[in-house]
Specification:
11 helices; six-stranded antiparallel β-sheet; OB fold (Dihydrolipoamide Acetyltransferase, E2P); 28% helix; binds adenosine-5'-diphosphate
Length: 398
């Protein structure tokens, strides 16, 4: 079991690409942490640095209080699972699972001739060790539901089955640390969702410290106990999925999580009499003095309003009851396009000022393309972002 601590970790590749910049991260023993961000943001490099497959340019990495950054990969006791499974094609599933264990045991090798084993004083020991390997392989195969595949070779397995074997091979070793690099991205959508749930169950059964890399925000949110959001080698936010979704630290994080993505509108403050209002090209909404004071303090220029699709609701007769929020603002728009997703629809709208927005509505909603609608906005769920200052979030609500 291992706590992992990265301090000021940086990696510059030959040629000058700064793949990771001053990364600080503490992963608790048994924690499941996901590194997520767009392609090229440095996720795989971070994982490879932890595994020992790349050398650090600066910084330190510790496992359970012991500095490991100069140790070769085999001395770090990590197991890695990759996107391409990397199974041995000429070995059966059984041997693929047993291989790592056999390599570590001196006497249990399958490859010794039987007469050597019989003649050797180590015979009893070798037999006991083989027994133990056999027990571990079968136990993990059972847990992963691949017991009936043990005699097959990887070429005769589906993608999902191969991925299970790859996971099994890593699990039987009971490593200190589990590192996974996009392990589900070769699977079809349905299998990905199934394997996601399976990974969660497995982590409960084998609570090994895990760092998991993905570019998929949904995978990150569903799998990670905590999520590390990276962009261009720089950490943007570290937090629980709830933190990241509801309290994004900047516009990048806000826009990266959630599908459909958060809507952004430009806004500024205006005073009418003694009251402050939020004003944009297509709206004028009330705002409390305290929020207005914060916005005035942080943003001289117009700021950005971030509104998630679920905080917008079409305010027609059918929705009237649900659309009534305690603190509504209204916005007019024309329905440009409707995406039907069964239990819900995603409605793409254009405001009179030409801004594009997406909102969600129930699947049975009667709204039509081309229709002019009023949107009720739950103002408590608005986020405000500074247009300067790395587009940091200033506050939320009204
Ligand atoms: P991600 O996993 O987030 O897609 P990577 O860690 O693979 O990102 O890459 C981060 C950056 O480092 C990218 O700009 C990539 O082109 C660069 N990079 C990755 N591996 C190498 C390498 N071996 N040599 C030079 N540059 C590399």
């Amino acid at each position: 079991m291992a706590e992992i601590i990265l301090q000021q970790v940086s990696k510059v590749y030959p040629g000058g690409v700064q793949a990771v910049s001053n990364l600080d991260l503490a992963v608790a023993d048994r924690e499941f942490v996901v590194l997520v961000g767009p392609s090229g943001c440095g996720k795989s490099t971070t994982l490879r640095l932890i595994a020992g497959l790349e050398e650090l340019s600066s910084g330190t990495i510790e496992f359970a209080g012991r500095q490991v950054n100069t140790l070769p990969p085999r001395d770090r006791d990590v197991a890695m699972v990759f996107q391409n499974y990397a199974l041995y094609p000429h070995m059966t599933v059984y041997r693929n699972l047993a291989f790592g264990l056999l390599m570590r045991r001196q006497h249990a090798g399958w490859d010794y001739p039987w007469w050597w084993l019989l003649a050797s004083a180590k015979y009893a020991q070798a037999r006991a060790e083989r027994h133990e390997v056999d027990r571990q392989v079968r136990e993990v195969a059972e847990k992963l539901g691949i017991s009936e595949l043990l005699k097959r070779r990887p070429g005769a397995l589906s993608g999902g089955q191969q991925q299970r074997v790859a996971l099994g091979r890593a699990l039987v070793r009971r490593p200190n640390v589990f590192l996974m690099d996009e392990p589900l991205s070769n699977l079809d959508a349905q299998m990905r969702v199934e394997m996601r749930a399976e990974l969660k169950r497995l982590h409960r059964q084998f609570p090994i410290t895990t760092i998991y890399v993905t570019h998929d925000q949904e995978e990150a949110m569903t799998l990670g106990q905590r999520v590390v959001v990276q962009r261009a080698g720089v950490v943007q936010q570290i937090g629980t999925p709830e933190d990241i979704y509801h309290q994004p630290l900047n516009r990048f994080v806000a826009g990266f999580f959630g599908s459909p993505a958060m809507n952004f509108l430009e806004g500024r403050l205006a005073k009418s009499g003694v009251e402050w209002t939020l004003v944009g090209d297509a709206y004028r909404w009330p705002i409390s003095d305290s929020t207005a004071a914060l916005l005035r303090h942080h943003a001289d220029a117009p700021f950005l309003l971030g509104i998630r699709p679920e905080a917008l609701m079409i305010d027609n007769a059918a929705n009237r009851e649900t659309a009534r929020t305690e603190t509504p603002g209204f916005l007019k728009g024309e329905v440009e396009l409707i995406e039907r997703l069964g239990e819900r629809i995603d409605v793409h709208l254009v405001t009179g000022a030409g801004q594009r927005l997406i909102c969600r509505a129930p699947g049975q909603s009667t709204v039509l393309e081309g229709e002019n609608v009023t949107l009720a906005v739950d103002l408590r769920r608005i986020h405000y972002f500074d247009q300067q200052n790395e587009q940091k979030r200033i506050t939320n609500g009204v």
